[in-house]
Amino acid sequence: MRISGEQVNAVPFVRPGEALEAVPGLIVTQHSGEGKANQYFLRGFNLDHGTDLAITVDGMPVNMPTHGHGQGYADINFLIPELISAINVRKGPYFADVGDFGSAGALGIDYLDKLPKNLAELTFGSFGYRRGLVAGSSAVGEGTLLAAIEGVKYNGPWDVPDNVRKINGVLRYSQGTATDGFSITGMAYSNSWNSTDQVAQRAIDQGLISRFGTLDPTDGGTSSRFSLSSNFAHSSEYGQTKVSAYVIRSDLQLYNNFIYFLDNPINGDQFNQLDRRTLGGFDARHAFDWRFAGLETQTRIGVQSRYDDIHVGLFKTEQRNVLSTTREDFVKEGNVGIWTDTTTRWTDWLRTTVGIREDFFGGRVISDTPENSGSARANMASPKAGIVLGPWFKTEFYGNAGYGLHSNDIRGTTITVDPNDKVTPLDRVPLLVRSRGAEVGIRTRAIEGLTSSVAVFVLDFDSELLFVGDAGTTEPSRPSRRVGVEWTNNYKPVPWLAVDLDVAYTRARFTDFDPAGDRIPGAPAWIGSAAITFGEETGWFGALKARYFGPRPLIEDDSVRSLSSLIFNARAGYRFDNGLKLQLDVLNLFDAQTNQIEYYYLSRLPGEPIGGVADRHVHPAEPRAVRLTLAARF
Q1: 312-323 burial, b for 16+ CB within 10 Å, e for fewer?
Q2: What CATH code is carried by the domain that includes residue 533?
Q3: Across 257-294, where does the E strand assignment appear?
Q4: Which of 207, 449, 480, 605 has the fewest CB neighbours in a 10 Å radius?
């Protein structure tokens, strides 16, 4: 599936990450300030901050292995939605060119090489929201130079203001076309913020804090990202070659306190997570057409490689002052993926794709606790296959099956003792975890203007990665299975009107026996969205979008469940003939009193029993807010 940038930007959203909700069945939330990676939910997964959802921007991976806050951490806050040309969407472990973190899905975000018109816009909104964006492109030599800079300030509805201060820039030079050309892109992003983390529901119920209050006003963080990337494409009689390469410098400091005074009744349980890394890599692929027994055939081959040089640490803090070091590690981690697939058209109504991928991972951990230092390596082969039948009456049937994987934090493969006491022995985890999936579906355009599809899928994991509230990280858990169905619809009866309706249901369960239960905490069963957008090049335009996020089990026996949420966002505006645009967005139109995220775990407030209290911990959805944008295209 390919979603255009125009479709992405046609509906209102609160934060950059929510632009990805243009992907059917994907929910994007936030539980801790506007500089931290979002929470992602897809196909019955609570993907935490990105695990099993592989995201790339301009060919650069966003997910971070062996990350200070969670495996696969994918911070998309540097995204400038107005620059998106398209989002390429694939779901399931069926694609040979997708490796680590891609078992549930993969999103490839492409940026524009050239803007139709230069753009300048200012947005003012509720709770101190301010945003300015200037973007433009111009012919330089034989190519095009595109530049954009964005600045954002935002406090939010929180009792302790978020005080977001973000600056973001892109500079890109390109020549030629997508099949014969090249681009070089530099990006720079810096952000700092306070954060109101999820809070214990009992603190709100007892009146200790308001619904938008915090239990540690010094939580927050800083983040920066600088990158240089290039893309090259060449077509000839020998086929199509594409090569991309990148180098990224990423820095993150997070201060969180999820359990308050449970472990340290005196100083509290705030902790600092440090992740500072330089990474580089490339993706090279070649496709060529040939005939197999007289049949039209295309074969693709590729190699991908990535290397991360990481400084990662966990420190106990009080009001952002370091009290002690829990662990500090220097990690060097790399991987290489080699893949190929072949698509054969057997008849006008039958084509098949078979492929295989081999991934090699390895690295070394140098820990401040010598017993936890060491090296690890692993490799895994992943076969893939797909079939398409049709079209008949603009309708086709398809099936896919494949093996995939995700990597675990490499520190878990070398650990031997608990870094807190340096004595308690701990079990190691495998570096790679197998996934297996299959789906069958139907897609049709039999009704004029309507594109509709239904898919039924199953996805198994040998080990589930779960968010652990009191540690603020993901940890390997039990084997799991998800069985689900997705129904996706896009209806465009006339050029100026579009209607979208997407519904997904997933049954997610652990597959081993455990007296604790078989429900997967945080795994959503029902997800749905509906949107109406209208407008032309000039004149009135608008949108109304509803997003439903169903209740989730919060513990394995399903005795505690989250709230559901139904949130509407609306937009109305007018485009003038001279290029000016006036736009009003109303977010959470009906002021739904619900939560962005919920967890269930032990925490302790001052005066409570020393063993803590098991409770629901929530981060509320922002109340109704308005944002007014004045934009000029020239």
Answers
A1: bbbbbbbeeeee
A2: 2.40.170.20
A3: 271-292
A4: 207
The β-bridge relationship of strands 164-176 and 129-140 is: unpaired
Under DSSP, the state recorded for 77 is T
pLDDT above 70 (res 468): no
What would you measure as the largest C-alpha separation in the chain, in angstroms? 79
How many domains is the chain partitioned into structurally?
Answer: 1
What is the helix (H) or strand (E) element at residue 5, kind and residue range? helix 5-9
pLDDT at 12: 98
pLDDT at residue 476, rounded to an integer: 82
Token pair of 261, please?
């005074």
How far the first Cα of the chain sits from its last, in Å, is 32
| CB-CB contact of 214 with 192 (8 Å) | no
The DSSP result for 85-143, as a single string, is EEEEEEESS--TT--TT-SSEEEEEEEPSS-SS-EEEEEEEGGGEEEEEEEEEEEETTE
- Residue pointed to by tokens 């060491």: 374
Can you tell me whether residue 203 is helix, strand or coil?
helix
Whether pLDDT at 413 is above 90: yes
Contact 21, 529 (CB under 8 A): yes
From 35, 98, 43, select the one nearest 69 (Cα to Cα): 35
32-71 pLDDT, tens digit each: 899 999 999 999 999 989 989 999 999 999 999 999 999 9
User: Which of 377, 373, 367, 368 minimizes the C-alpha distance to 333?
Assistant: 377
pLDDT tens digit string along 210-219?
Answer: 999 999 999 9
**Rounded to 5°, angle at Cα 228 from 164 and 67:** 60
pLDDT over 70, % of the chain: 99
pLDDT at 470: 47
**What is the phi/psi pair of residue 328, to 5°?**
-145, 130
How much is the pLDDT for 408?
A: 94
Beta strand extents in 237-270 (DSSP E only):
239-256
Cα–Cα dist 369/364, whole Å: 14
Compute the mean pLDDT over every residue in the chain, rounded to the nearest whole number: 96
Three-class SS of 477-543 = CCCEEEEEEEEEEEEEEECCEEEEEEEEEEEEEECCCCCCCCECCCCCCEEEEEEEEEECCCEEEEE
Q: Could you give the CA distance from residue 585 to residue 570 in angstroms, rounded to a whole number?
A: 6
Which runs of consecutive H residues, i.e. helices, occur in 345-460?
A: 411-414
pLDDT of residue 128: 97
| Cβ count within 10 A of residue 210 | 14
